[in-house]
Amino acid sequence: MKYETDLPVMLPLKRHQSAPFPGLKSKHILAVALIAIIGPCVAFAQAPSGQESPLTVLLNWAPLLLKGFIFNLIISISAMAFGTAIGAILGLGQISLIAATRHSSWFVTQFFRNAPWLVLLFFAMFLLPFEINVLGFKIPFPDWLKAILGLSLPVMANVSEIVRGAVRSLPSGQWEAAESLAYTRMQTLWLIILPQCVKRMLPPWMNLYSILTMATVLASIVGVSEVMTLTGQALASEGGRPELLAPFYGFVLLLFFIYCYPIARFTVWLEKKYAVIN
Amino acid sequence: MEMVYEWFRTLYQETGINLPFLYDEYDRNRMIDGLFTTIKLSLVCLFFSIIIGVIGAWLQGSSFKWTRRFVSVYIQLFRNTPPLVQLYFFYFAIGTLLPRVENDWGGQSPIFGSFAWAAISLSFFAGAFNVEIFRSGIEAVPKSTVEAAEALGFSKLQIYRDITLPLAFRVVLPALNNNLVNLVKTTTLAYAIAVPEMLYEANQIWSDNVNVTEMMVFLLLAYFVLVGILVSGMNRWERAMKIPGYG
Amino acid sequence: MSWTTADPMVSLKDVHKSFGELKVLNGVSLDVMKGDVICIIGPSGSGKSTLIRCINALNDIQQGSILVEGQEVNDPKVDKLELRKKVGMVFQQYNLFPHKTALQNVMMAPVRVLKQDKVKVEEVARALIKKVRLEGKENAYPGELSGGQQQRVAIARSLAMQPDVILFDEVTAALDPETVGEVLQTIKDLAEDGMTCILVTHEMAFAREVADHIYFTDRGVIVEHGPPETFFQNAQDPRTKEFLSQIL
Predict the structure, then answer these.
(1) In this complex, do A7 and C142 lie within 8 Å of one another by their Cβ atoms?
(2) Helices (H), C41-194
């Protein structure tokens, strides 16, 4: 995400990097986050006498919740792979010379980009069959697979836009130079344009992955047993003690933070690095 | 209008395509309420997230190291954790800790209802993005322009209000609009704590009428149109705010 | 001790200023009487711009004293609003507010800062725009004006505060050669009206024509000064001579 401005009186708008923890190193921020999330939980979570302390309860459940979180990561990686594959094709469709392909790819992209992720997830959940018949074999279609498909729809649309944006951001001189060297359009695309685009696409693509990972908890709303669902079940089986709520939800927040914050830092680092090269 | 309603009733009877919110008054009102709740939630969050953004950007420029750190930690926490879990955390974890108040019929009810918590949670979520957006806008205003205002005797506050903010606002408008579109899409999360917004009402209707397919398609179209109107309105606004002579 | 017009309007005494390790002003003293037009010349990096920015308190100083109409600028308690009402400033890069029209640029400070009546301010502002020969451009935005036109709006904007003295910081340095003349003419008009002006400039011919007194600075000190005739004909210091031989 780079914003440009045409105002000569205005300085070039550089995105305020999400890095500036003045004087804080990455490892410090994790500690700060831990304190910020766990701190208030512990403070509020004084157990009534005769019951296990909330922290003990949380520790008992932690292994299960971690397993659930790993399932979230599996969903995110699968949806990312799937969405990227289709999205790349759709993105190339958006720069096709055939008007019909271009327009339909554009429409599909816009349609799925404008739709809320949760609605697309519902869409996949309710409209996909629970099993499909292929040559007489019944292939079951479990909820988690539907969730992966549902989440890969918005990923697809966003990847499509990333591809289009990256190709469009290359100076037209690159196309002209290749053309003057008698490359075909396909050759130009694969040998000249796309290799240059990869660098430009990587930061927004990573950013998208981070967003997708955080969106995997939406699957809990449609009943996939990932970390959020398990948290809800754990809380219920502890008898709905209100003082457990903050530590448990705080724990889930922390899991995601530990996973997504380094990705965000890495993305910023990549952006800076490529900004220098370009 | 009656004719249109009747036409959809006939459509259902003839083809089985069931769109009850078009011919049934009760369902229609539910759907309209849902639409208005979505719009209302978006507007409330927009308002507060911009306020959070402006204050946060101002605090980030402060000379106190710890206020800057505090804002940075806020941004990172809200940007790198799932908004749904944030919403649960606010609604369940914090909501149950707050004292309860007596309601109209003598019972006890929480101070904030689900709508209020959704508004609070989503405002903080969108606000974290706005802080960085505003910060980059403020940094894009050249120091020399601010200096010129200073030389004319403007006070710090006047410079911020009359020069820095209006200029920064114009530069960040595209990014801000992008964030607003995301905000509208994110309001669907309020479904999870039973705020009767569009997705929630649609869910109610398909539970009653067993017409998931029709409602799903309608929902997708509805959001497509809603976001489409928003985007084109924003583009128009961006053009209107353009400073003549530049770009 | 109250200030009278017989005293210097701007008086610098032994002003020292450094940016960190870098010493920019090394004991500068000069007096400017009411109605004087003085030009400060010198090689780039000699501290000319810093010098006049200090008069307007845009830069602070470490040592010495700057009096504007008898009021000490180098004092944390100084009323900057009062000071800036007296001292106008025009910048090299014009620094107009890009989101306001020419007229609004001129009107903004009197309305916002001095809380003057909008209708009256508009009358004055239109007259000022006419004075800088930009009639018809009232509603143009800075981006729609040439550099020279923008600079003249900036001069009008500064005049609208009715300052007693105006500082010009290399106001023609960023302009296209063909628009330099119109801006210099505007300044000349002002000088003839009796406005006290302090200019930092590279336009030697212009300095010679309008200035009452010329100061030559190098490495943070005033090397030589005098009325233009003697200064340009009879420079004494080798540094001045070298500079003049390069530039003339």
Answers:
(1) no
(2) 48-55, 80-86, 102-112, 118-131, 147-159, 177-192
